[in-house]
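Why predict the complex rather than its parts? Because the way molecules touch one another can change local conformation, and only a joint prediction can capture that. The input here totals 597 residues.
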Amino acid sequence: MRIRINAQKAHCNRTPSRGRGYGAVKYAQANIRKIMLFSLAVFCLIPAVLVLSGTIISRYELGQCLEPLSSGAEGFITWKFLPVYPTFEHYARVLFYTPQFFVVFWNSIKIAVLILLGQLLLAVPAAWAFAVYRFRFRNVLFTLYVVLMLMPFQVTMLSNYLVLDGLHLINTHGAIILPAVFSTFPVFLIYRGFCALPESIIDAARVDGAGEWTIFWRIGLPLASNGILSAMVLGFLEYWNLMEQPLAFLEDKSLWPLSLYLPEIHLDQAGYSFVASVITLIPPVFVFLIGQEYLERGIVASALKE
Amino acid sequence: MRATKKRQKIFGSKNAWIWFLLPSGIGVLIFVCLPFLDVVRRSFLTVVTQEWVGIHNYQLIFNNQAFLLAVKNTLRFTVICLPILIGLGLFLAVQLSRLRKIQFLKSCFLFPMAMPAAAIVLVWRMVFSKQGFLNLLLDSLRLVPESGPVDYMSTEAAFWVLVFSYVWKNLGYTIVLWLAGIFSIPADILDAARVDGANERQCFWQVIFPNLKGTLYTITVLSFLNSFKVFREAYLVAGSYPHESMYLLQHLFNNWFVNLELDKMAAAAVCVGVVLFLFILLLQKFWDKAV
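Output of the joint prediction:
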């Protein structure tokens, strides 16, 4: 803020003509705005850059850099964005010598993909029901869905546990997947997509003799694919990052997803940890890059009131 | 012929919703609604013997030091974080809305959303520990206190690390929501205001801001509920029993769960659920009034 005021003053002193001075101030303001936004944006990316650069630093150099952290000695850690001897040893170690990593990676994939598939099967029809039909208790049910969507895991943790225990699913992947499949958040998101359908189209299809299922399959699904993709992108970022549920319901470490496995890696193996982090980052970043449009739409849709 | 008629009755356009909603509805009923009622019932019982104890469990948690501390910290976290996040998000969104090409910047701000908490932990340790980058920076600026560099993880400052990490992660989300709100304001209103001689500041306070009240409601609700997910970072960085300044309700629930103190947990789940429910309704009521 202060910088901007100073810039304004400077310009006022230099340009006596008010019109031109005003333009220059605006120009300066616009530049300052750009610089501020860009530096903040870059700031958001720094952690990723740190992780990425850490993967090619050799074990020895990393040990030196992070020495104060592990030994608790005085002094500060150092960092080399471009190491003296770049190496791929950590990548090789993760990819070729640690079968355990693949088990965990596979767990993560399995959990996220199965949850999303289940949600697709259940949430899309449910959203269709809410968007197209007017029935008794519709508003009550819909409010219930919205409230459930907004409840944090901690509130439903015990309820989840009671059911899962009853079904003997504790300490299996089912304990993570099943409750998440019935999450009401995607219903809400996809519902927003269906609401954009003009009612006249559906009525026209009915007049032409199309069955309810045909209307859903032929008209609803293609037109609401944006909402569905939004739900999938947001869902993937969420379920890839899932921690609370596996922490509570999975004891067996071989069942853990990446989100629990990564923090277990000791600081001595920082290089390994960096590479594991980068590999963990790849799927969500990939989804993020190809699905950013849908991600933004999903965020916006999740915020709209009925 | 009769068969098709019967078929029409069940699959007819009036009742078809049942078939679409049924699979999801049954799941929600079995996995969420019924067990939550069971939790409500259990909150009045003892764990082992299942005896009726009335509101004893509720009395228990409201006299429990850990519960009170967790509630206090969670409230403090929310009260501090939400204004920072919402205000900063609005400020940046307004700045962004004045630029022409913002896709790249938006991507940068959204990117932390895609960073799994687990991949960040090591970075946070490198930045915030006693020998970390933050202290290195302060040292080079000669701002280190005389008592020596602070370990941000195991002192009072841990709370602020959490605040930072929450804002860092959710800023993009908030900016996208604000931007959607800002861009949904019809351009003619703004143009009209500018023609009438309003400057940027007046435009913002007189035109843009009053039109964003609906957005404010939704951002508040979503940010509030996302604030519960900060447990991930908190847990990863500091474990089950972090510094007491960042011992949150989420830690407490987790620890009660691990120790199988299900009676307290049931009572607390009911309390938190009811409070959140009321909070959502209250905000919605304000919003309805405002719009």
